[in-house]
Design goal:
Blueprint lengths: L5 H10 L3 H10 L3 H11 L4 E2 L20 H5 L7 E2 L7 H14 L2 H11 L10 H7 L38
Helix pairs in contact: 1-2, 2-7, 3-6
Length: about 170
């Protein structure tokens, strides 16, 4: 399997006109890293052991990272998700994540943060597209019926006098 640049692949998916073209781009440029990142972004059972948002890190220089280093680094992302075979203290896990972000290309670092926060955003890239391209990568999800939410009725207690400890609760 060739190691196509993941960002280029996602850009091509975003520029493809039809759903079939998008699926074909993903299938033609298939590799482990692309599948792993899309699975980490869309799989409902993946839980990250990291806080949301970008941690404070110093983006590396483009010249400092080797081309396609993300293909190597993506194998280490199991340190940061649940279930993880690695039992690490949270501080160590977070510092390792910052080191990872500083090691890769700055654009790849942004991609990893977007995947971690499940905010990977490319035109036409969706759970359904990834599931159609690689049926075994993601589980089937049940479609939820649109049912109106049930309104809770306010309970009014009679004969109870509010006290100073009511903490703003209306009786």
């Amino acid at each position: 399997m060739a190691e196509f640049n993941i960002l280029e692949t996602l850009d091509l998916v975003g520029r493809a006109k039809t759903r079939e073209e998008k699926r074909q781009v993903l299938a033609d440029r298939d590799n482990f890293a692309t599948r792993a990142l899309l699975q980490l972004n869309y799989h409902p059972d993946v839980k990250w052991h990291l806080p949301a948002g970008a941690p404070p890190y110093t983006p590396g220089q483009v010249a400092d990272s080797t081309p396609n280093s993300l293909h190597f680094e993506v194998k280490k992302l199991d340190y940061y998700v649940d279930p993880s075979p690695h039992d690490l203290p949270m501080l160590r896990r977070e510092s390792m994540f910052v080191e990872l972000l500083e090691r890769v290309d700055p654009n790849d670092a942004k991609l990893i943060i977007a995947v971690k926060d499940r905010k990977l955003s490319y035109k036409g890239l969706s759970y359904k597209l990834v599931k159609d391209t690689w049926p075994d990568l993601l589980p089937d999800i049940e479609e939820k019926e649109d049912t109106p939410p049930v309104k809770k009725q306010k309970v009014v207690k009679k004969g109870v006098t509010p006290t100073t400890n009511s903490k703003g609760v209306d009786w």
